[in-house]
Structure formats: structure tokens, C-alpha cells
Fold each of these.
Amino acid sequence: MKLTDDLALEVSGLRKTYGSVVAVDDVSFAIRRGGSLGLVGESGSGKTTIAKIILGLESAAAGQVRACGRDRTAAARTLGERRRRAREVQIVFQDPHSSLDPRQTIGSMLEAVVRLHHRDLIAGERRQRVMDLLDMVGLHERHTAALPREMSGGQRQRAAIARALAAEPEVIVLDESVAALDVSIQAQVLNLLADLRERLSVTYLLISHDLAVVRQLTDTAVVMCQGQLVESGTTAQVLDDPQHIYTQRLRASVPGPTWVRRVSATPSILDEGGAS
Ligand SMILES: Nc1ncnc2c1ncn2[C@@H]1O[C@H](COP(=O)(O)OP(=O)(O)OP(=O)(O)O)[C@@H](O)[C@H]1O
């Protein structure tokens, strides 16, 4: 794969094993600056492992990860390097309950991140930045004093998005970020994410098993099956005209507004007896 500077994120030949399990097997994809790519696949296909390697939470056995043209495959050696990498890629997890510190108010959490990444700002400017971040995600000044448990699930996820934005990252990894929310709240947060992408030109890597979410938020998609990338293309191509049998089964197994039942209930869409 050609590595170029107008790409926000590039993953090439990535491999990760856990003992005898090959979690990620020679996976390559790229996202242009401001683009949004959906990483699709059923549970255990290797999606979160890829996210962890991109974030530096796991090391790869082979392959390369680059963000904004800079290699980040090897562990960061200095604090400055870790901070710079954090400004390149941030993550929003599925469950803000466990990803937010339960003892820290939303305001102090955001101010700490602003302070870490914008050391030149004075106190008043930092406070203003926190207000701006809250406003960007549809929260209010009163939420600065709130603890995570005093907020609704949707508000907590908005706070987690604000925390990611506080670093002004080039790329945000959204790892099942709306999966735990009620459907109506999920729609609001999806709209917020779409608006933010448009306003900030931020790049998304969206990890989801929910094809409707992938359709709404991404313009390209890759499909993972048992650690391998089996299909890639524009989101419309992949979802409307899937070429690989796995993607076809994945699509057929997802109930949606226009869902037609084509497969019987099965623990895995890979079970031969499961699809009919
Ligand atoms: N820390 C670990 N130790 C051992 N095996 C692991 C570890 N993390 C992941 N795996 C294995 O690697 C494979 C890929 O897991 P991964 O969590 O990346 O999949 P996923 O597609 O993100 O699934 P899910 O949507 O359920 O999170 C699975 O077989 C999983 O059991």
C-alpha cells in the first residue's frame, strides 16, 4: 500500500496473535483526511484489536500503523510523543459509564484534557474552551459540575465525545459508541457525530456491528471475518451489493426497518447450517 500524507490513517499488513488465536491477519486499509470508514464484522472478528493497536494499547506482531503520515507502530518512547499521538487519534468507547472517571466532574475532566494538550492557554481561556466543547456536543454550562452518574446515558456519551474533541484530534475511533444507547438517543448522538464531522473535518474510524449505523456515518467500509479483511469499498457498494458471501450473510442476519428474514437464528453467521 502506498503511504501518502493526505491520508489521516493507514493500516498495512497488520497482524496480531493471542497464543494460537490469530486475532488480526494481514489487514490493510486507509482513510483520507476528513473521511469516515466503517469497520464491520461480527463479534470476535478482530475489530477492537485493530482499534487497540491504533491507539497504542496493544502492540502488533507485524505490519504498520500511520496517522497523519507518521508511524505509530512502535510504542511511544517519550511523554511528548505520547501526547502528540493522542492529538492525532482519540477514541470514544461503547460504555461511557466505565470510560469516564466516576469521581471527576465533567468540567474538571475536560479542563484536565485541555490543559494537557494546550499548555499555552491561561485559566480563563481553558474555561472558555471547556464551555465551547460542551456547546459543541449539546451539553450546558450546568454540566460542568455534574458527575457522570448524575447524567443520562446520552449525556455521558456526549461528554465522552467532548473529551475526545478536547485534544483536537485528526482521527476519532468510535468503537460501538452508540451501541449501548436507546434507539431515540442513539439517533441524536449519530446526528451529532455527523454534524461534528462536517463542522470540524475530523476523520472517523467507526467500529460497529450495526449496518444502519455504518450506513449513516461512513463513506467507505471494510468487512472483517475471523481476523481477515474480506471485502472493502464504498459503504453503498459494500452494504447494497456485497460481493463476499460473509458480507451477504452479515447483511441478511441484521434486522432493520426493511428487514426480510432470510436466515434462521444461529450463534454465528459462519455456521454452514445457520444460513439457509
Ligand atoms: N486479550 C486477549 N487475550 C486473548 N484473546 C483475545 C484478547 N483480545 C481479543 N482476543 C481474541 O481475539 C479475537 C478478536 O477479538 P476482538 O475483540 O478484536 O473482536 P471484535 O470483532 O472487536 O469483537 P467484539 O465486537 O465482540 O468486541 C477473538 O477471538 C478474541 O477472543
Note: Residues 256-267, 271-276 have pLDDT under 50 and may be disordered.
Amino acid sequence: MALTQDDLKRAVAQAAIAYVPADCIVGVGTGSTANFFIDELAKIKHKIRGAVASSEASAKRLQGHGIEVLSLNDAGDLPVYVDGADEITRHMHMVKGGGGALTREKIVAAASKKFICVCDASKLVDVLGKFPLPIEVIPMARSYIARELVKLGGQPKLREGFTTDNGNVILDVHNLQIMNPVELETTLNQLAGVVTNGLFARRGADVLLLGTPEGVKTLTA
Ligand SMILES: O=C(CO)[C@H](O)[C@H](O)COP(=O)(O)O
């Protein structure tokens, strides 16, 4: 029987467990693949001290499994962060934020020694940008930033009815062909009112566990 996308996500989540050191606090991402990882983490919960979550949703799922959730301020630097992506290149540059958790994801990733990206094969691309780039913005800056994004060649669309865990809104930017993700990440960060953009290029993944019908492939930076 052919493997489903969920089978591939579960397989990479299982593979990611090998990167979790004993007795550590684990950084945990957000989304359907991260949820599979949380479920795998529950099986070894007696071997870890707890987790730092990148969203309220992941915190709830972790706690539902009886895993202690710590604040990043209490946990300090983390050995490993495990999360999915909406798109990733072989250079380990990613677009993230499809689930709207990009800001906390970027913070927890920054505070982690290793970023393990867990994806099914559909997420591997040559050029980023087919998936609309999420940008979290302060609500009063929404229209100003949208105009600036149009000048950069994008087509921003407000994510209707969605508020981030930080009380902000998301602009999803369509039609960007992101040839230089490091440069664009920096440019977007400099727009007043941008909290975080969904490009994870300046700090990309260290390891990509890619779920394919032939098994889990490991790519490194
Ligand atoms: O960045 C994210 C959430 O903000 C997720 O990692 C990304 O959207 C991938 O999600 P999924 O594993 O459900 O495909």
C-alpha cells in the first residue's frame, strides 16, 4: 500500500528522536509534523527534563502528554529544536509560518544549538516563494507594510480572522521568487512594524530529515 503524507511525517518525527540527548530540555515546533514529533517525544518523556514550545497549541499538546513545558527564560539555551517547514531548499533555507507561529519558532530556534527540520518530500524546493511568505506585523502597521511589500514585488494578503499568539496579524505574501533568501530576510526585518518574517535563512536548519517513499533521507548543512 502506498505511504500517505502522514506516514512520511510520522517517519521523520520518529527519526528526529535520535537527535534528542538524554536529560535535556527540547525545543518543539508547531504544525502537523511537529505534532507527530510531540507524540513520539511522549514515548521517551521519562528520559527528558521537559520542553520549550513555540506556540500555545504545541504547549497544550505537550502538556496533554504529561510533558513539562518550561518558558524559554527559565530553560536557557537548548541543545536541539525540532520543527517542520512549509518549504526548504538544499541550502537549508526555509519558509515557515504556515501555522502562524513563526515568531516564537524563530526565537526558540535561535536559542537552540541544532535545528532539526522534519518534512515530507513535498516541502523540498529549488527556489523558495511558491508557498506565500508569512510576515507577522503589528496591527497598526499592516497597510504601510503591505504597500512596502508591493514595492518589493509581492502581493500581500491579510490572513483573515487570524491573530498570532503575540496578538499580531499575518500578511501572506504571494508571487515572490526568492532568489536571495538571506538578503530578503534582512530587508524585511528592517521594515518598521514587522515583528518577524517567515524566512529562516540567516539561521537555517542544521539537519533536514526528509520523508520519502524510499525512507527517511538525512541532509546536512
Ligand atoms: O512553520 C510552521 C508553523 O508556523 C510549520 O512548521 C509549517 O507550517 C509546517 O507545518 P506542517 O508540518 O503542518 O506541514
Note: Helices lie at 5-16, 32-43, 56-64, 72-75, 102-110, 142-151, 181-189.
